[in-house]
Amino acid sequence: MARFHPLTVTDVQKTIRDAVVVTLEPDDPAAFAFLPGQYLTFRHDFDGEELRRSYSICAGLDDGLLQVGIKRVEGGAFSTWANEALQPGDRLEAMAPMGNFHTALAPDAARHYLGFAGGSGITPVLSIVRSVLAREPKSRFTLVYANRAVNTIMFREELEDLKNSYLGRLNVIHILEAGGEEIDLFTGRVDAAKCAQLFRLWIDVEGADMAFICGPEPMMLGIAQALREHGMSDAQIKFELFASAQPGRLKRRAVSAAAQSQGNTCAATITLDGAVQNFTMPKDGQSVLEAAIAADMDAPFACKAGVCSTCRARVLEGEVEMIANHALEDYEVERGYVLTCQCYPLSDRLVVDYDQ
Amino acid sequence: MADTMSIADYLARGGVLSNPENVPPRYRAELMRLMATFVDSEMAGSAGFADIINEAPGIAERIAAARIVLEKADHAGRVLAVMAEFGADTAKYATHQPWTARLARDADIGPTRSGGDMRLSVFHYPLEGWLDAVVMNVLMGRAVTVQLAEFSRVSYQPLAEAFRAILPVETRHAELGEEGLRKLLEDGALEAAQASVDYWWPRVAASFGAADSTRLDQQRDFGLRHRSNAELLADWRADTAALLAEMGLRAPG
Ligand SMILES: Cc1cc2nc3c(=O)[nH]c(=O)nc-3n(C[C@H](O)[C@H](O)[C@H](O)COP(=O)(O)OP(=O)(O)OC[C@H]3O[C@@H](n4cnc5c(N)ncnc54)[C@H](O)[C@@H]3O)c2cc1C
Ligand code: FES
C-alpha cells in the first residue's frame, strides 16, 4: 500500500509567469532518495476531497536538493493551488520517488545523450542533464527544447549556466512555436519533419546512445518516429508522459436515499467498453464480477482474490459490500472504486462502470 | 504546448505510456490481465519444474533445472513489481494460488483457463519425469520466446522493458532444454521423446490462444498487441518443427 511521507516547503520561486519551482525538505531524507528522471506524487485535500498529482524532480543528483517545477494548467486544481497559494513553511505529503524515466549512470562512460522536452516536460530531462554532466565527465548531452515563446521557457537561465559550467558538453537547441528567431529551423512545432531537418544538420543520431522524450503526445510520436527512422531501437528511447488519468475534482457520486435493501435480488446496470447491460442478480452467493461474466460480459479479472485490482470498477449508484480489499486505497474507495470480484450488492439497485 | 491528443489516438498511433498515472481504466484492466497471465504462468512453470530438479540425471542437468526454477521465479517477481505500481499486493499475490496444482495428464481443457489463476492452459498439465520435462521445456521454451518477442513491444514502457530484460534469459532456458534433449537422444531415447512431443505439441499450441480472439482488436488499439495469435502460432510451428526435424523428431500434424 502506498505510503506518504511529510515534507516542508522551504522555497517557492516564480520562474516564468505561470510556473513555480518548489524546494522541499523531507522529514526523512532517506525516503526520498531518487534516480534522475523520477517523479513525486503529492496528495492534498481540497475541501475535504483528496487529489493526487505527480511532479517530476528537476534537481540533479548532486544538487543536494529536492525540487519540482509546477506549471499552472488553465483551470487545474493542484497546479493553480501550487502556483498561487503554496508558501515556504507549508507542509506537503508525497510518496517516495517513482518512475522509470532514467538510465544507469557510469562514471567512466562516454556517451552521447539526446533529450527532447516540450514546455513543462523539461523537469525530468533537466534532472537527467544535471546528473549526467556531474556524474559522467566524458559524456555529453544535446537538448532540444520546445516552447511557445521566449517568455514561457522554464529554466532558461539554469540551462545557460549549465552550458557555461560544462563547456562543450551541453548543447541546447531552443525551438519556439511563435517566431522571433531568424532561422526557420528553430521555429514551429517539433514533429517528424522538423526532427528530420535537425538530424540532417545538427544532431548526430547515429552516434547517440540514448534518447529521453517528455512532452505533449503529438510531439512524442513525431520524435520517436524520427529517431526510429534514424536507427534507434525501442530500448534506446525513453518516454515520460505527463498525461493523467487521475480523477479530477469530484462530481459527487449519487448515493440515492432510496438505496436501502428490500428484496433478495438486485437490479444491476453494468457498463463495459461503452456497452450497457441490465440484469437481475442475487444479493448472495455471486460477486458483481461473476454476475457480469454470467451475463456474457467480458469483464476483466485475474486473481479473483482481491489482491491484484484487475477487476476494478466504479460504483455510480447503490451500495455493495466489499469483503476483501488488498489493492485499492481508501481514497479510491471513497470515490466509489471497488474490486468487483469481492463485491456483493446490498441495495436493490446497482450501477457499476468498468470504463471509469 | 497547446496541441494535445486523446490517449486513445495517441496509443492507436503507436504512442507509449510511461507510468500508472497515464493509464486509462480499460487499458489498465487489459494490461493487468496480460501481466497476471505472465506472472501466473512463470510461477506455475517454476513450481512445476522444482519437483523435476531431483530427477535430473547428472550435475549439469540438476544445475540447469535449478537455474530455470530460480530464474522463472525472478521473472514473475519483475512483472509483479510492475503490477505493484498499480496497487497489487505482491506478498499476497505470490501465495494466493497453489502454483504446484496440476490437472490429470489426460484432462482436456483446450485453451481455456481453469482454476483460480491466469496461467496459460499448458501449465495445468503435469510433467512425467525428466525426459518429459525436457521435451515440454523445449517446446514451451520456443513458444515463450515467440510470445515475449511480441510482448517486448507493448505500449506500457515499464513492462516492455521488463520483457526485454527477460527475453534473453528465457531464450537461454529453451537452449538448456535443447541441450538436454540432444543428450537424451544420444542415449537412445528417441521413441520416448517422440511420445512426449506428441503429448505436448497440441497443448503448447493451445497456449497461443484462440485464433479468433475477440479481444485482439482492442488490445491492438491499445498497443498491447501487434500480431495475431494465429501469426505467432505459425511462427512457433515453423520454427519448432524445423528444430525437431533436425533432431530426428517429428512435429505432429
Ligand atoms: C509522471 C508525471 C509527471 C509529471 N510531472 C510534472 C511536472 O514536472 N511539472 C508539471 O507542471 N506537471 C507535471 N505533471 C502533470 C501534473 O501531474 C498534473 O497533471 C497537472 O499539473 C494538472 O493537474 P491539476 O490538478 O492542476 O489539473 P486538473 O484539475 O487535473 O485538470 C484541469 C484541466 O486541465 C486539463 N489538464 C490536466 N493536465 C493537463 C496537462 N498536463 N496539460 C494540459 N491540460 C491538462 C484537464 O483535462 C482538465 O480539463 C506530471 C504528470 C505525470 C503523470
Ligand atoms: S481480480 Fe484480482 S482483485 Fe479482483
Condensed summary:
The complex is a heterodimer of chains A (356) and B (253). With 356 residues, chain A is an alpha/beta fold.
The domain tally of chain A reads 3
Query: Can you identify the CATH class of the largest domain in chain A?
Result: Alpha Beta
SS-based structural class of chain A? Answer: alpha/beta
The CATH class of chain B, by name, is: Mainly Alpha
Give a quick account of the main beta sheet of chain B: strands, pairing sense, barrel closure. none
Average pLDDT of chain B: 93
How widely separated are the two ends of chain B? Answer: 57 Å
Can you describe what's shown?
The complex is a heterodimer of chains A (356) and B (253). By secondary structure, chain A is of the alpha/beta class. Chain A folds into three domains: 90 residues, Translation factors (Elongation Factor Tu (Ef-tu), domain 3, Beta Barrel), CATH 2.40.30.10; 134 residues, Nucleotide-binding domain of ferredoxin-NADP reductase (FNR) module (Rossmann fold); 97 residues, Ubiquitin-like (UB roll) (Roll), CATH 3.10.20.30. In chain A, 19% of the residues lie in helices and 32% in strands. In chain A, the strands form four sheets. A six-stranded antiparallel beta sheet of chain A has the order 4-3-6-1-2-5. In chain A, a hairpin with a 2-residue loop joins strand 12 and strand 13. In chain A, helix 4 crosses helix 5. Chain A is elongated and about 75 Å long. The two termini of chain A are 22 Å apart. With 253 residues, chain B is mainly α. Chain B has one domain: Ferritin. Chain B is 62% helix and 0% strand. Chain B is built from nine helices and no strands. Chain B is globular. The termini of chain B are far apart. Chains A and B meet through helix 5 and strand 11 of A and helix 1, helix 2 and helix 6 of B. The structure holds flavin-adenine dinucleotide and FE2/S2 (inorganic) cluster. FE2/S2 (inorganic) cluster binds next to loops of chain A. The site of FE2/S2 (inorganic) cluster has 13 residues of chain A, from loops.
